[in-house]
Automatic annotation (TrEMBL):
It comes from Brachionus calyciflorus. One of its GO terms (molecular function) is metal ion binding. GO terms for biological process: mitochondrial protein processing; protein quality control for misfolded or incompletely synthesized proteins. It holds the Pfam family Peptidase_M48. Belongs to the peptidase M48 family. Gene3D superfamilies: Metalloproteases ('zincins'), catalytic domain. GO terms for cellular component: mitochondrial inner membrane. It comes from the Eukaryota. Keywords: Hydrolase, Metal-binding, Metalloprotease, Protease, Zinc. This is Metalloendopeptidase OMA1, mitochondrial. Signal peptide: none annotated. The keyword Zinc applies. Residues 149-334 form the Peptidase M48 domain.
Length: 364
């Protein structure tokens, strides 16, 4: 593995490459690749439904009394064997689960993680190709003023944080797309896409820096790998539940109802809150990255207040993968004192007493 630090260069006339590394991630060989799971998951789900349904038919059919009796006798005779099998499977699954508990870099949070970034390169390539196809005439050249501005901000973030292995070990790339979207996006490999609508929306580079730093934080913390690991767990759990629903509930309609209820339960009580938790973590780490690069992080809550004012309609937080604009502004406000301390420790230039109020906020 070779490190070519500080070599910030162009890899073509639209993309900046900030670093040149191979991924430095531990190998997790025992996980079924996400792309393969796309095929295995529906087959497993369908099989568990069909097997469960066949068992129910045997149990419920009056014509199958002898089969039912044979089935009951079969389980009675081998009760200990089945109990042993189920307990061993449970212990094995739990041990496997524990062996995949890791700490997040920087925030040191314990999490279950099955994959690493390399598992997603194929999926990422497909998504990137789609994205580049969609915006093929909209990618701004490096010489463009907007690309240059974004590049200067991203470079400052990278240079100030490159001593951290988590930042150093990623091949950061930057592309700016001419689209009226107030957004940015980072792929797990470290390729960051910024939309020009964001550059038009921010009042200054401090706000822009926070948004880019937030996206960098997602890549540093391997949030995609973590989310996919959590979803894999949920998938396995859901395949097991399908077997129980279709095997032991009285009719098809009750199994369908329970399937639908359990899907909603997973979504609203687990998936969405988990996604919002990761967004908060990316905000926290993004603040730290921006503070180390001496940006005025006090503008980050203001950015989200502006987003709130500018959003015509915002879906309720509990239905969203992201915290509401209000929540983000408040959470970031609470992180400002700690981030200011980081700036101080990094011997950054002194900030003015107050920040400039945005025109959007003043005119509201
Ligand atoms: Zn995010």
């Amino acid at each position: 593995m070779k490190f070519l630090l500080n070599r910030i260069k162009r890899i073509n006339n639209t993309t900046f490459l900030f670093n040149c590394n191979k991924f430095h991630t531990s190998h997790k060989q025992d996980a079924i690749a996400p792309i393969l799971w796309v095929i295995i998951k529906p087959i497993s789900k369908l099989s568990s439904i069909l097997i469960g349904r066949s068992i129910r038919k045997i149990i419920n059919s009056p014509n199958n009394l002898h089969k039912k009796e044979a089935l009951v006798n079969h389980f009675k005779l081998r009760k200990k064997l089945y109990l042993f099998g189920i307990s061993s499977l449970g212990i094995g699954c739990y041990a496997n689960y524990l062996s995949h508990i890791e700490e997040t870099p920087i925030t040191h949070r314990k999490r279950f993680i099955l994959f690493n970034t390399e598992h997603f390169l194929e999926i990422e390539d497909i998504e990137k190709k789609d994205m580049l196809n969609l915006y093929k005439d909209k990618i701004l050249p490096i010489s463009n003023e907007k690309t240059q501005r974004t590049y200067q901000v991203a470079k400052r973030l990278f240079m100030a944080n490159k001593t951290m292995p988590e930042v150093k070990d990623i091949d950061w790339k930057l592309t700016v797309i001419d689209a009226d979207l107030v957004n940015a996006h980072a792929f797990p490999s470290g390729e960051v896409f910024v939309y020009s609508g964001l550059l038009d929306f921010v009042d200054n580079d401090d706000e822009l820096a926070f948004v880019i730093a937030h996206e960098m934080a997602h890549a540093i913390l391997q949030h995609t790998a973590e989310t996919m690991s959590q979803l894999r767990l949920l998938d396995i759990f859901s395949i097991g539940l399908s077997f129980l629903f279709w095997g032991f509930l009285p009719a098809d309609w009750s199994a369908i109802l329970m399937e639908s209820l359990s899907n909603q339960f997973h979504k609203y009580y687990y998936e969405l809150p988990y996604s919002r938790k990761l967004e908060k973590e990316a905000d926290l780490v993004g603040m730290q990255l921006a503070a180390r690069a001496c940006f005025d992080i006090r503008y980050s809550p203001q950015f989200w207040t502006k987003m709130k004012i500018s959003s015509k309609e915002e879906i309720p937080e509990f239905l969203s993968t992201h915290p509401s604009n209000d929540t983000r502004a408040l959470d970031l406000e609470s992180l400002v004192p700690e981030a200011l301390k980081i700036r101080q420790d990094c011997k950054c230039y002194e900030l003015p007493k107050t920040i400039k109020q945005s025109k959007i906020i003043l005119s509201n």
